[in-house]
Structures
1.
Amino acid sequence: MKKILVFVLLLAAIAADSVAQNSPDAPSVSIGAPPKGKNFLKMYLGFDLSQSPVLAQASSGASQVIYKQEYASRPFFALAFARELRSGDFWEISGQTNAFSGRQDVYDFNLPRIDTVPFPPIELLGTERNHFAKLQYEHNWRLSGETTGMVRAFLGLFVRAQGQWARFDPNTSANFPRKAWGAMLMPGFVPRLLLNGSKRLQIDLSAPITLGYFGLNGSALENPALTLRQQRNMSFDLSMANLETQIRIGVAYSLQKPSAK
């Protein structure tokens, strides 16, 4: 019973503080919420669940299995600058790249007849690199009238410019080096929750979802038996219903010191 009474009194204190903060005579600073009209630096960690430009490399052997690696659920990190407006809405510009580096091995799972070999042989084709960079601008509108709550919901719109490049280096002469690259422009929307941890810190939970994209992809197969024009390939991509998703968790730090009470 005492615990319930303490909880009710705590809720009443929070409600009274919220009413006082929304009063015209109240000071502009509230406990647990950032000041209005302030600048923030953010760092995100997340997973990119979208498809990326792929490499297509024919393996040795009669099966001619195509090496096609789809980079799904890869981690990334991003840095952002955000400006909170006096209305409680905010805009943000961010740049991100993949959170892994270096080369990775590429294997060919050449499946034989089941009645001849019990286990499929695994052949190492070579190594690959794959990197991306993204620049995103978004504007977020708060979904409730509360601007100083501990948890605030937002819905935003964004436009993203994305570039990606990859290279495959074989370990034998049976295959040839191959490069691939892609550039895309995509709009989308982002639901978001902001958790106010202190006067200067926020926790940002968001999931940007793209609505489609317009892209240009290219590849080059370094086969000396082909002409330079035959080695290169380029294509345009257009998608109007491509719901690619990111899952992000971020920490925002206010660049202004909180005002004294």
2.
Amino acid sequence: MKKILALMLSCVMVIAFSVSALATNGGSNGDTPPAPGSQSAWAAFWQEYAKAINDRNAAQTAASTAKSEAEAARNDAAAARSEAASASEAAAEANSKADAANAELSKAMDSLDAATQALSKAAEDYKEATNKNQDLQKQVNNYAALASKQSADIAKLSKQAGEYESKLKMAANDARNMAGRGSPSGNTNRNQMMINNNAVSYGGNVVAQGGHVEINGGKSNVTFIVGVPDGGTMTSAASLAANLKGSLINCVTVTSTVAFRNARVNFYVSGVTAADNIAVYQLQNGKWVQLPTPEIRQDHVIVNMTRYGTLAFIRVPVLASITN
């Protein structure tokens, strides 16, 4: 703006100077041409006059240019004011959005604090629940251990009850056999019949030996005599059967007068089938030793023996393998 004003001032000064010069060179009136006959004066007059015209034209051009520049400057100023107003509005809007964002951020921070507190409480609750679960698990384990112990105790008592039942049966059988052998009661004929047939009955099961024992690999007419063992031996046989998870069929003593290294003896055992697993044990030096049974068929069990002694016939779930 200052540049435009300076240019206009310069133009005015040029015009004023030119008019002043023209007046000075033209005569006392300022616009009077020189007297006739003075050619040099006329030439100078016209030069000054042309120069003044040129200066006036230049001043007008400069003024017009200054006016245009002033108009452009005014337009630029107006545009700048408009842009400033727009920028101000944009700034106001940006400030408003920033305020709104800050408000949302504050809400978000509040929500985050609340969520953090909730998470902390949930962690504490989880820890407390975990501790309670551990306590409950300990109680469950204790109850399970107690139940297992009680189950074992029940199984032990059940086994003892079975043994006592077997002992009672054996005691009753011993009483019947002894009464039959030594008293004139009605059982005498029945037990005497058992003796005559080389047989022993226990719990309704009969074991007998009918002779024709194979001695040292050869056939013979030898008969092994069977008898009733004492009560302690019967109790031991019943315990053996219980330990094998089987049932005692009968227990007999076996004697004879013939010496042998090995004997193949055919025993009659009532109720036995070919599908049964029959284990035969012999009491040797206070211990029960299993004997080979090469053949089991209906009502018969073949036993390989190397000595006389007490035999226990036991029905078992699975027959153990032994060397014949």
3.
Amino acid sequence: MSHAPTAIDASVVIDRVRVRVTPREVEPPQVSERVRPARPHAADHRLVVHELRIDTEAPLGELEARRLGERVTDALGEQLTALQARRVDAICAGRSRGGRIQVRALRAVLRGADTGQPDVHAIALALAAAVERSMTS
């Protein structure tokens, strides 16, 4: 049996992105239930978002909605990668057990005057902060 260190997989995965142009009246929470797998692999410390949902009041066409989804996904990926770097440091230092984190759905609701040209970096910061809060609760 080898006790050599194994490479740590701390990647960020966003499985699906959905942009809805007409949001519901009731706002759901930003992060739905977090789920951990029953038998994680020792080196699996990925952060997996199964669905990123973006609801907006802006009158976007299909192409504009797709571009908005891509821009938010890219910015969120950068923020979650930075979060993962902090997690890996904590895991390697023995301050955290780590393990894969799965987020069933991550939601952003864009309302008001700025929905036509939203600040995707601010959206990504808010979503990443919501993920980080859910990890510590």
4.
Amino acid sequence: MVVLMARVTVSADRAVTGKLPPVCVQTGLATDHMVELDTRIGGPPAWAAVLLLLLGPFGWLVLIGVRGELLAVRVPLHRDAWHANQRITMVGRALIGLGVVGLAAVLMSEPSTVSGALACGALLTGLLTVAASRLLLPRVRLDATRRWVTFVGVNAAFSDAIETESRISA
């Protein structure tokens, strides 16, 4: 089954308070389960943040100064979809931890190419898994006037429900 992903814009007030139709943003199923998503508005993109971290103390200071601000929105997300996303995130974090511990063990003992490659593989797989779990959730964009929030990557059924509500209230 192919699910088309959509984008939909709502007022910032509706997004922050969660006054949205009871349709899951990810699956399109009816749900009464609401989840708060925190999104950083402004600041550098993720790739630039990693680059600044790699620059050492100077990059860290720049990163602290340009972090942006946090926008918390409430979206309907089916319990099963939310729990699946949380499980994927936990597996990714466990792999990151395993990779860090493995790299520390390799560096503290006699370095081995195989064990170092395994530790790096676990770390990289964990990072990619956590990134993938975040991509399953909708992206949130705030417009320049700070009055409208756009959800990108939502299920078409959620987008249709928003549009239907807008037509009814107009």
